[in-house]
Structures
1.
Amino acid sequence: MIDQRKIKLKDFEDKSFKTNALRNPDGESALTHYIHNHKNGVSGFYKKEATSHVKNLLEYKYPDEKITSNCAEEELQYLLFDKYSDIPFPPPKKPRFKFIDLFAGIGGFRLAFQNLGGKCVFTSEWDKYSQKTYKANYGEHPFGDITKESTKSFIPDNFDVLCAGFPCQAFSIAGKKGGFEDTRGTLFFDVAEIIKRKRPKAFFLENVKGLRNHKSGKTLNTILNVLRNDLNYFVPEPEIINAKDFGVPQNRERIFIVGFKRSRS
């Protein structure tokens, strides 16, 4: 049996191993999410896949050794002492709330919510270059395609806020009521489905300002109908905000949709 503490986080960056690890695409995401959430009760959602990823590395480095799951789990625990210590945007030391970051890009939402005292407990972004930049910024590798059930299965329970800058495809709503089922096949449907399953206290959605007038306003009305009536959230009228009005040197107008879970009395 190998001696304990044989591996470090930098070993997972070995190019040959990363090629070998493609058969387990969620492994790197699960490992980094496990390490960054081991103190807040969320790590259990990532432990199984993280342990498997560690086991794969051990088998790669020590092909002549018998690597058990117990051995991999012990190594996983040692890795908690080898955190990414040089990330430019670490989470707050005493977070006030938990949030998830969907369609994360390179982490604009995350930076804002961390500055407000939030702890990100799940991230999803399918673009490989954005994933690489996100990991460099925050030390976590995002999970991939959020439309896949395998990706949704990693989303933890009991987070407070859902953040999503979802792309907006056209809805087929001609002659329909514009309810939850009418959004199937769009990325908004996946956001709505996650809200329906997890029931966060609030959500914060962002899109291009053209969403307000898309299909003469029918698309936005469908979205608001789903959020307000099907999912039963309080959603005030969306607002278009320009980044240049908040000290950012960029003329960038976006529509923001916020919602709050209705209390049950």
Note: The longest helix spans residues 47-61.
2.
Amino acid sequence: MMLSSNPSHGAINVPLSVVAANNTVTTTPVSATFSEAMNPASLVTPAMTFTLKTSASGQNVAGQVSLNASNTIATLLPTSALSPNTEYTATVTSAATSTSGTPLVGTYVWVFTTGSSGSTGQAPIDMGAAAAYLALGGASIENLSTAGQPTRINGQLGVFQNSTTVVQGFTESSPAGTGIILTGGIQISSGLVNVQRDFNAALSVAISRTMKQTRIGVLDLALTQVDGALPGVFPPGLYSSFLSAPNSTGSSGSAALMLKQGDITLDAQGNPDAVWVFKAGSTLDVGDARKISLVNGARASQVFWVVGSSVTVGDQVDFKGNILAVSSISLGTVALSGTKLEGRAMSGTSLNLNNASLKMPAP
């Protein structure tokens, strides 16, 4: 019944606080995700089935437990910040029950270790109903591949229009083409009201997030150096191409994000729940044969590329993360080996694919 936890079992360098969806800093939440709806009375404070303790002393950590709207995620929010460089033990006992009265098969226990004093992480961008889609286009989705080099979509497509005729070049679209949708199919706007709403909300929240951000300006990502690491190595965090804070009129200098002069590495530092948010004030431009590597527990599902206008990803690129763009996204051109995306491609206007392979990131 219990599927996963956050922080994950065995995670290290867990931040002491996080920047939440409302752009405020909170204590680091501890959550448990279940496969079915749970009975709130068996989990929510003052129930004592979900606890957090320091592993060494066994001392209880004060906090409040709540459930999300679907009653599938229980979250314990500590009243005060966790201690640095400390191992904690979280427990959900078998007294927690589903809405049908079924208890957990057994007590679930996991441990994690916090990072250094003052460490602050980013909460993931909540995409809501849009998260079920691998590719979204506001106005159109077009596949330009040849029969010998087809685009492959291992997931569901959606377009915010009332006809599949704006989805071109796929075997399940009209007209037929060389793209292959392996699972999912094409959904149109009449069935995507909640998806479009949640995509727009996620984009708005992501663009407005500024707390604990690192401004990296116009320098190519492969040449950018963060906290004394090697150029192109990024620890978890919020990175922005915005050149300045908003002025009195509400505007600010902005620039493109570029990845053309080398590859980059996202280093989770032992925390598989670590989050990266890259914000481009204008465009994101990725050159040919570039690669994004994930190391030390990093996961593509926890990487977000938030782009103020358009995205262009070239040939033979190994790209990781969820792309949320205000306008167009173009993935791949005509290279023999093609471009790969592990993550979602979500565009406010058009999505253009050419010899591209898209798959959902592992949760």
Note: The chain has two domains: 2-122, 128-359.
3.
Amino acid sequence: MMALFKLLSKLPLWLLHGFGSVLGWCVFLLSGVYRRRFVANARQAGLGLWQWIGAVAESGKLVAELPRLWLGRPVPISWDERAVAHVQAALTQHRGIVFLTPHLGCFEITAQAYAQCFGTMGQPITVLFRPPRQVWLRRLVSASRQRPGLRSAPTTLSGIKQMIKALKNGESVGLLPDQVPPQGMGLMAAFFGRQAYTMTLSARLVQQTGATVLLAWGERLSWGRGFRIHVGPMQEPLPVALPDAVAAVNRAMEVLVLQCPRQYLWGYARYKQARESR
């Protein structure tokens, strides 16, 4: 499998995305469970067919581009006109930055882009990730996320302590707050009008460290032209009460998702039961 990943990593991005589009549609058509969850989640958000149908192919692209992002040469990355200014302004406060990114677009590229632009200049970012169960994939993911200006922290107590330490040192951290957390590490909160088990970690990190919150996502450009990074502040202050803060984070994720619903991972089991913590 590693050999296949290395082979795919040498292919141009446009070819990987073309293959990914076919893959996305094959999975959508052949898996009834996935298709029903995909459609139900999109409809839960109030979207019509033409607003979400493009996400079928985009979900496949998300998988197909991983070998290139993990093992291949750098891909083209640009920043929207205000993104860099938002990051620079937050860095000057020396309070640390918590980047919140939903399962939107290419969430692998946001941390890589930050590391290239700011991490190598003494402002590293630590990203939270859930280690895969397969040993070979765990090693691959871990190695790919250990690069100049970029560190990784597992979804364990030691990983959380690592992120808190980074923030207290004025550094940045990144996580996906719409990822279903282990049992005991979340609260029920509305997400597109339906109760979903939601992680409390993002809010706790801000409350414990006073860090600045920025919302970020990586837009996948057409025809393999690379990615564009979008960054902005939350539209509302993070409340003090934890349940209210968690609800506010979910609302912020909804706003981002609706900016580009065709690139959201609607097939993700967002409303599943919390898994047991290990």
Note: The longest helix spans residues 13-30.
